[in-house]
Amino acid sequence: MQCNMWTERAPEEIVLNKIFPRLIALAETAWIDQNNKNFVFV
User: What pLDDT, on a 0 to 100 scale, did the predictor assign at position 36?
Assistant: First the structure.
């Protein structure tokens, strides 16, 4: 798994506000067993 964000032109506060919520979603997707996930892909 990977989560990319190109930051060469973005201010640090914007980068941090965009990265951290997505890191939680990435961790959930990567570490929780597929059979234990409690959501439906739309």
Answer: 75
